From TrEMBL:
PANTHER family: CYTOSINE PERMEASE (PTHR30569:SF0), CYTOSINE TRANSPORTER CODB (PTHR30569). The lineage of its organism: Bacteria, Bacillati, Bacillota, Clostridia, Peptostreptococcales. GO terms for molecular function: cytosine transmembrane transporter activity. It comes from Aminipila terrae. Gene3D superfamilies: Hydantoin permease. The keyword Transmembrane applies. It is a multi-pass membrane protein. This is Putative hydroxymethylpyrimidine transporter CytX. The chain crosses the membrane at residues 12-34, 40-62, 82-111, 117-135, 142-161, 173-194, 206-231, 237-264, 285-302, 308-329, 341-357, 363-386. Keywords: Membrane, Transmembrane, Transmembrane helix. It is found in: Membrane. One of its GO terms (cellular component) is plasma membrane. NCBIfam families: thia_cytX.
Length: 392
């Protein structure tokens, strides 16, 4: 693996691109039934919860120099971590397809090229190009892309918030449900962030800057989606761009935001694949995942992803809670063991708790209470079982 290190600034650019996403904007529109003020509160509270976990997950990779799925071995062992590596590759392939089809649909609305399948192929090729260039060589390209996105996002924001407030969109969503939707997006990055912080010249600083950058940009995108739904009465961001005369500029926003976000999914899928077996190599595996995502985007009806977000949260929120307790509090390491039965059992309980909490209407959403309960159970279980003596 290359020893080339990335700068703190380049990590900030990477996570600026991760937050600048059509998916974030579309998720923000789902929160509109709460109204503008309550919607913003839910967005901020959910992102604070999700980004705290994101920070500590990234810090583990920064301090150990391990990839995200390699750090999971600390809690679940060599074989136990394979469960999460496989789940991670699957969810990243799914995210790649979701992002490509979302970007393609918006691009097709702005510029008709004969069908979303054409735009899916174009976006897929651009993502492969980003992967081929490699993360350590992307700095200059990312500066150009992020500068363009920043300017165009400001233009988009001004257009959205110049609109007159319409009636609050109809729909049913509780404050807790909105909090959970806001936390779900940073949670989806939990199994990825260490893939980037481990390569930083100043890893701890890069972790903090990456998290803060993502928090700010993702909240911004959510609020654009929220405002678009309330102030323009329109949930389709592509239609807003076209009606505002933001044709070519709008297309640039859609294409670049889709590519810079989905590149992270494809790249980390490659890293996770390598952690599953040495026969997989990062770059070829990442390109393969991009190809699979493109095919799924063209041939499968991937349009609704709210349930997908909740599924990701239910898998990875308990996982990272256990990892945080083991690494920072108990300071135990099962990396050399085959698996940790104790932690796998606690994770299963956390997964079930998350699904149960989804049926409840708590003001703080699902992630925070499940995270606290899972962390407590992990601490007690490992203490009672004397640091994992029952693990094999």
């Amino acid at each position: 693996m290359s020893e080339t290190k990335t700068s703190t600034f380049s990590n900030a650019l990477i996570w600026f691109g991760a937050g600048m996403s059509i998916a974030e904007i579309l998720t923000g529109t789902l929160i509109a039934p709460l109204g503008f003020q309550k919607g913003i509160l839910a967005i901020i509270f959910g992102h604070v919860t999700g980004c705290i976990l994101l920070y500590f997950a990234g810090l583990i990779g920064a301090q150990t120099g391990k990839s995200a799925m390699e750090t999971v071995k600390i809690s679940f062992g060599k074989k136990g971590s394979l469960i999460f590596s496989c789940l991670n590759v699957m969810q990243l392939a799914g995210w790649t397809a979701v992002m490509i089809v979302s970007g393609a649909a918006a691009s097709q609305f702005i510029v008709d090229l004969g069908g979303t399948w054409v735009w899916s192929i174009i976006i897929g090729i651009l993502i492969v190009l980003w992967v081929a260039i490699d993360i350590k060589n992307l700095n200059k390209l990312n500066i150009v892309a992020m500068s363009a996105l920043f300017i165009l996002a400001i233009l988009l924001s001004s257009m959205v918030f110049k609109g007159n407030s319409t009636s609050v969109p109809e729909g049913m969503i509780s404050f807790g449900g909105a909090v959970e939707l806001s936390a779900a997006m940073p949670l989806s990055w939990l199994p990825l962030i260490s893939d980037y912080t481990r390569r930083a010249k100043n890893p701890e600083k890069a972790t903090l800057v990456s998290t803060v950058t993502y928090f700010a940009v993702s909240c911004w995108m959510y609020i654009i989606g929220l405002g678009a739904s309330i102030f323009t009465g329109q949930c389709d961001i592509a239609k807003i761009m076209v009606s505002a005369g933001l044709g070519t500029a709008g297309l640039v926003i859609v294409i670049f935001s889709t590519v810079t976000t989905t590149f992270l999914d494809a790249y980390s899928a490659g890293v996770s694949s390598e952690s599953i077996s040495g026969i997989f190599k990062e770059k070829p595996a990442a390109i393969s995942i991009c190809a699979i995502g493109t095919i799924l985007a063209i041939f499968t009806p991937i349009t609704e992803y709210e349930g997908f977000l909740y599924l990701i949260g239910s898998v990875f929120a308990p996982m990272i809670s256990i990892l945080i307790v083991n690494f920072y509090i108990l300071k135990v390491d099962y990396s050399e063991k085959r698996f940790s039965g104790t932690n796998l059992l606690v994770w299963a309980v956390g997964f079930i708790l998350y699904r149960i909490f989804m049926q409840m209407n708590t003001v703080v959403g699902n992630t925070l209470p499940v995270m606290v309960i899972t962390a407590f159970l992990c601490f007690i279980a490992n203490k009672v079982l004397v640091g994992g003596k029952v693990n094999v």
